Amino acid sequence: MAQPKPFSPAKLICGIISSKELPFKKAEERLVQLYGSVDITSPLFKFNFTDYYEKQMGKNLKRKFLSFAELIIPEKLGEIKLQTNELEEEIREELKESRRVVNLDPGYLTQSALIMATAKDFAHRIPLQHGIYAHLELLFSKKSIKTLDWTYPDYRTEEYHKFFMEVRRTYLSQLANL
Length: 178
Hints:
The protein is an alpha+beta fold and 178 residues long. It has helices at residues 21-35, 54-57, 77-94, 158-176, and strands spanning 10-18, 38-41, 45-46, 62-72, 103-109, 113-118, 126-129, 132-140, 145-147. It has four helices and nine strands.
């Protein structure tokens, strides 16, 4: 019988969506307080692949990703998503806004995949804890990224792939030095 082994550490990332500069700034500051220093920051991407968040957050949304220097154990993803959900509300209150001003999407990268956390259930999502699910977004090979039938349209773009491959190179270097 094969004995279970501990999971390899994973590379924490977090997507931030907002239409305003101040919520981005507040979110970054708070995420660094919670999860440590950032080693890679993506450019600011237009978030115009869906209007899903427009009613809550307005138009002209943008997204950026942060990659954190400290590796995490994958089992923490559900807890991290619960924390970022609370953080969204704290930022809304702090900025005295009546509606949502920032969306935080944590996930982690491994040698072979990008896993994101979500509170939305669907057939391909795996329950983690307290209404939080794991969502397999991308698969990595040595030099390329494979999308899946359910991969979100923005995660299919060359710009996102470039960022995630850079994060993966950094992560693989970190693993080699453990």
